Amino acid sequence: MAVTALILALCLSAEAAEPVRMTLLTNRTGPGAAIGARVANGVHDYLEMLNQRDGGIGGVPLQVEECEVASEVERARACYAAAQASGTVLITTPDRGITQDLLEPAARDRIPILSLADGFPAGTRGDLLPWVFNPSSTVLGGITIAIRYLANRLGGLSELQGLSIGLVYSHAGADPSALLILQELGARYGFSTPLFADDETEASKAALWTRIAAARPDHVILLGQGTRSGASIEEALKVGFPPDRMIALRWPDQDGIRRTGSASRGFKEVSRHAFGDAFPAFDAIDTFVADRGLSSTPKDGSGETHYNRGVYNAVLAAEAIAEAQRARRGAPLRGADVRLAFEGLSIDDSRWKGLGLAGFAHSLTFTCRDHGGRPSGFVQVWDGAKWLRVAEGVPQMSDIVDARLDAVVAEFRTANPSLPARAEPCGSLP
């Protein structure tokens, strides 16, 4: 009996030591490399810090397999197949196209997707897509945050009456629901909404901002990211459009905003997390990852906008895995366990502080229906050298976001009839 007990104990220890496998699909190369590499670095560095400092999550090593896809669907499919065969319990996807292509196989194989794609609002609705979580989809809620922030500065939503608030967007890539929600807000509060399509060609940049300057909107919302957003700032300055009348929803390229320096003072950004690296968790990343030569992040890259986006999403992944471990009580994790943990995940201010990230992000809660978390937003302003926070906890306008999401869900279901419906009610065991 004693020998049997010893053998069982050794087997349980071996089983407990099995790493938790997670797969990170990356865009370190290809058309999205300028953003994708930085996001991937943030995800990698935070998770590697947990491995180096804590031995993983819940004392179990975390095995993160990176697979480069370069925004190519065929490469993503091959990476997914390898990840599924390895027993991964969570996959992150870097963009909207890759996320949408993997929806069906992930649902079939019961592997949750943590999508890092902006502009995919359908991915925030668990009643439609139960196997994908899309916390970075801030476009719809972000527009309402931007409008509420502008109204608060003026003295209330009624003060928007008669203003002109334009939207600069990608002609090829913008989600139509983003344009519609701004127009709905304009109709509700009495401001006009001129739309300025950017066809993203080099020759069109100057002409676009010449048109905007001639139209003289009171404010302009930028719906773009990376180098395009950075180019918008530079072109706006060339035609004399004031930077303090610009507010972005998807982060400008850090190099672009730095090039403009003090000339772009007053430019604003809506985000669900802070910029900069003045947090204990970032000190831990320096100590346990960067200083040990385990990071691909340049020396000045920690705290950069896209890097912090990666850290933010890595925190959500790690917290969901930890919740799943507690629910399983030492049994090996399955993808279904991680999905169920995500649907009950709540990170309040106290928990952010415990993670060494006090003030980095606001409280958020996922539910069966809400796979986006719907947190309040920060508004941050460029002071000529760095980002400063100018507004805390600006809430989304939930009624108008929900109404638009209902329409998005209906359209997505019609366009994708083969997608499997949710198989079990919320809260049921996997």
TrEMBL record:
InterPro entries: Leu-bd, Peripla_BP_I. It comes from Methylobacterium bullatum. SUPFAM superfamilies: Periplasmic binding protein-like I. Belongs to the leucine-binding protein family. Gene3D superfamilies: 3.40.50.2300. Transmembrane segments: none annotated. It comes from the Bacteria. This is Leucine-binding protein domain-containing protein. The lineage of its organism: Bacteria, Pseudomonadati, Pseudomonadota, Alphaproteobacteria, Hyphomicrobiales. Residues 19-371 form the Leucine-binding protein domain. Keywords: Signal. Residues 1-16 form the signal peptide.
